[in-house]
């Protein structure tokens, strides 16, 4: 458990880490469970019936999440993304969203409150999520071809099921809607063009993500990474693209617009073009550990503070000290001896959230 710091740091909304990066985004994992077994995230051979998923009592309660979120917002967080595992598996998630939707930044602005989902339960839940105050959603979809999609999720879910969820989210006004596709060379790179064609002109922003070496169970191999530059070239061959300005310095995706006005795509090049220099993200695991990097091997146990009677001032001060000491930049170091050392014990993405 992080010690209560001797020097108390009250929130100023302007924290910076050792590389002068502010704290702006918080990703909260609300469950470590998932109904999919995506081959690159929760391979069935590892996440089987004997896998030690967390017991319910280990999870942060909605009250605990809200309390921590409020402290992070006081420190400068403007965007909260709920993730997992599959966040829509967490019972009554709308009740958590209702609580988080009441938070505002120190200067009174509403938060950007979003969620990443595999989409399988979205058709049923989109309206309730919107009514609870969710701003928008990101849906993961790796292929339109059903046989391939089923091979990738390894749990028998159809692409049409996810597409119905996307349509329901659009109808509910959860906009702008983004779709994330993880590209694995030799597995689903043949789906790049069909996906681009499908979502072009639909108002959905399709983003291609380089396959990453998260966790230690997906057997990652550089040969299976298709660099974003190649994705852009493949799309541009059929649909001419023009580069677009980033919305903000901390944006992870590079944006490209269809020259004919049919909307835009994005590429997230975590492997070939590290964006650690602008990384303003903290991650809260399902059991309340604060991780400073997707590739971190250890977290700071805020749940222990919550459950041992620490005051808001104690916890806020601990968060400030932890963030001020942050020097993580794994993707920039990837391939170096330092990164290999750092990466040997990294946690699974389904545990700390994408
Ligand atoms: N279950 C939800 C979903 O799939 O959208 C939320 C959690 S998932 C861990 C968040 C995101 O991480 C998804 O878009 C997923 O595709 C992505 N992801 C998981 N493993 C990845 C990997 N090895 N490389 C790149 N992205 C990955
Ligand atoms: Fe589940 Fe999302 Fe991981 Fe796929 S990427 S196994 S849907 S948590
Ligand atoms: Fe941020 Fe870590 Fe990813 Fe770099 S490797 S962008 S520091 S999460």
Topology of this structure?
Elements: E1 25-29, H1 62-74, E2 79-83, H2 93-100, E3 112-117, H3 122-132, E4 136-140, H4 146-153, H5 159-172, E5 178-183, H6 192-199, E6 205-210, H7 228-238, E7 241-243, E8 254-258, E9 264-268, E10 281-284, E11 289-291, E12 300-301, H8 302-307, H9 312-324, H10 330-333, H11 337-343, H12 349-352
Parallel strand pairs: 1-2, 1-10, 2-3, 3-4, 4-5, 5-6, 6-9
Antiparallel strand pairs: 7-8, 8-9, 10-11, 11-12
Helix pairs in contact: 1-2, 1-9, 2-3, 3-5
Bound molecules: S-adenosylmethionine and iron/sulfur cluster (2 copies).
One iron/sulfur cluster binds at residues 275-276, 279, 281, 293-295, 328-331.
Key traits:
binds iron/sulfur cluster, 16% strand, 12-stranded mixed β-sheet, 30% helix, TIM Barrel, binds S-adenosylmethionine, 354 residues, 12 helices, alpha/beta
The name of the CATH architecture is Alpha-Beta Barrel
Please provide the ordered H/E string of secondary-structure elements: EHEHEHEHHEHEHEEEEEEHHHHH
The ligands bound in this entry are: S-adenosylmethionine, iron/sulfur cluster
Which range does the strand content fall in?
Answer: 15-25%
Structural class: alpha/beta
Contiguous runs where pLDDT drops below 50 for at least 5 residues? none
How many domains in all?
1
The CATH superfamily title: Aldolase class I
Instruction: Summarize the biggest pleated sheet.
Output: 12 strands, mixed
CATH class assignment = Alpha Beta
């Amino acid at each position: 458990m992080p010690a209560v710091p001797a020097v108390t740091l009250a929130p100023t909304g302007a924290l910076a880490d050792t590389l002068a990066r502010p704290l702006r985004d918080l990703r909260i994992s609300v469950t470590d469970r998932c109904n999919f077994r995506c081959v690159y995230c929760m391979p069935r051979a590892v996440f089987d019936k004997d896998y030690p998923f967390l017991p319910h009592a280990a999870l942060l309660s909605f009250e605990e999440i809200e309390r921590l979120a409020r402290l992070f917002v006081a420190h400068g967080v403007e965007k909260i993304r709920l993730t997992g595992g599959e966040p829509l598996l967490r019972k009554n998630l709308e009740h958590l969203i209702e609580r988080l939707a009441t938070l505002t930044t120190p200067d009174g602005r509403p938060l950007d409150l979003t969620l990443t989902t595999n989409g399988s339960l979205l058709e049923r839940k989109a309206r309730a999520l919107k009514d609870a105050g969710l701003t928008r959603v990101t849906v993961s979809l790796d292929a339109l071809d059903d046989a391939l999609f089923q091979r990738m999720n390894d749990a028998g879910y159809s692409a049409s099921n996810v597409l119905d969820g996307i349509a329901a989210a659009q109808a509910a006004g959860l906009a702008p809607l983004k779709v994330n596709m993880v590209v694995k060379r030799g597995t689903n790179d043949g789906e790049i063009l069909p996906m681009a064609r499908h979502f072009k002109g639909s108002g959905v922003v399709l983003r291609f993500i380089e396959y990453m070496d998260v966790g230690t169970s997906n057997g990652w191999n550089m040969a299976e990474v298709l660099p974003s530059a190649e994705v852009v070239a493949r799309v541009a061959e059929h649909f001419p693209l023009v580069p677009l300005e980033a919305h903000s310095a901390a944006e992870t995706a590079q944006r490209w617009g269809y020259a004919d006005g049919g909307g835009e795509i994005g590429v997230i090049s975590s492997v070939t073009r590290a964006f650690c220099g602008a990384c303003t993200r903290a991650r809260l695991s399902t059991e309340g550990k604060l991780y400073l990097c997707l590739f971190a091997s250890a977290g700071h146990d805020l749940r222990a503070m919550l459950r041992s009677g620490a005051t808001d001032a104690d916890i806020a001060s601990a968060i400030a000290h932890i963030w001020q000491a942050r020097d993580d930049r794994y993707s920039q170091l990837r391939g170096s001896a330092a990164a290999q050392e750092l990466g040997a014990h990294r946690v699974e993405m389904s545990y700390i959230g994408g």
